Amino acid sequence: MGGALEDLIVPMLLLSFVAGFATTLGAFVVLWWPNLQPQKLSAFLGFASGVMIVVVALDLLPTAWQWGGLGAMATGFVMGFIVIAIADLLLTRLTRSTLGNGTMAPLRKMGYLIAIGISLHDFPEGIAIAAGAAAEVHLGWVVALAIGLHNIPEGIATAAPLRMSGLRAWKIILLTVIMSLFTPLGTLLGFGLLAISTEVLAQLIALAGGAMVYLVWDELWPEARKNSPFWAYTGALIGALCMVAVSFIHHH
């Protein structure tokens, strides 16, 4: 690893910590907001859905294709889809065994699933910060900004169903703090992987994409539309437009 790249590790790690902890900030929004109404939850989940789909379509998959080609991108994407689907099955059993078959279990499962999905994609996003900084220093900063911006609604999307399922506030905060650490861990690993294999990086990034698409398709969007279709679509549109703008800044 060259000296110039080594000089970037500490500042980019610090930046990754800040971007990662935006997830916890999102959780605080939910905890500060008493009596979260179904319409608000729909808007939050819709917003997170819009953010995730745009991130996958405009950032994760194109980057994976660019670095590893179609094969690496497709392999990683399918792996991500399968990994989160298996996690879904396991969590369904776990939450039903601990909470029964009432309304709380699906909410608890969804919150945990979103947490896993976000952690899975925070890891390669941390890698993306390293990769961006390695290409051009300002790109690392812009990628970190994009990650931080969409980590806030993702923190909301994680915390809202967990809060509604009755999970204690301190446990939600602890969970989001743990989740937030995946971004700097990814950045640290990214600087190491940059010297080894861009194809592995591509697969990791595509894996995150597959995980996020599964989450939106199977969990976020159905739950958002169930509560309030209007607010779900409104939130999704706002989330998508926000991330299109961030992605545009990122790529220009």
TrEMBL record:
GO MF annotation list: zinc ion transmembrane transporter activity
Q: Please give the start and end residues of each transmembrane region.
A: 12-34, 41-61, 67-91, 112-133, 139-160, 172-194, 200-217, 229-249
Q: Per the record, GO CC terms?
A: plasma membrane
InterPro entries given in the database record: ZIP
Q: Where in the cell is it found?
A: Cell membrane
Q: What is the protein's membrane topology class?
A: Multi-pass membrane protein
Q: Which UniProt keywords apply?
A: Cell membrane, Membrane, Transmembrane, Transmembrane helix, Zinc
| Family in the record | Belongs to the ZIP transporter (TC 2.A.5) family.
What name has this protein been given in UniProt?
Zinc/iron permease, putative
Q: What organism does the record attribute this protein to?
A: Heliorestis convoluta
